[in-house]
Amino acid sequence: MSRIPEVTIDRAGWLATLIYRFARRRYGAVPQPVAVAAHHPGLLLSSGIVEMTTEKVATVLPASVRELATYRVASRIGCSWCVDFGTMLQLKEGLNIERLKHIEDYAFSEHFDELDRLVIAYADAMTEQPVTVTDEQVAELDRRLGHKAVLELTYMIALENERTRFNHALGITDQGFTSGEACRVPMP
């Protein structure tokens, strides 16, 4: 149970009601972070715009790279909600989620290639406190991916840090998106 209660549909304003309907159609349930954020309609709208816009424009990186980076951040910070939701998104993309079981051993695991290893190490470095990103990391990613993709990767990792820290601080935990209880998103 989250530290701040969810806004129920009968107490939701017009904006939250609209967002709840959209979320139910898309994910089969209202994501708990949305229902908690509904206490502050301005922030709910702002975060919704950021999420929807990012989804539309973050298309330079392959989905497998983008989702691997954000999953790593969620697992490092320990946000069970983000791990659950992120795994569901990877399933929806048709990505191999079995490899996620080996992410702690990514440096030596056969489930990850050299680019995956660079991306995971970069996500780790950005998530550390203080941040430990090196010039060499950025240069190598830039050489392999190009400026635009490195900017997208950096943005996605930073955004996931925001999401996970928000959810973790408010005690928002997994919602069952990968168990089939909440998620009715059609798989590819």
From TrEMBL:
The keyword Transport does not apply. It comes from Halopolyspora algeriensis. Keywords: Oxidoreductase, Peroxidase. This is AhpD family alkylhydroperoxidase. The keyword Cytoplasm does not apply. GO terms for molecular function: peroxidase activity.
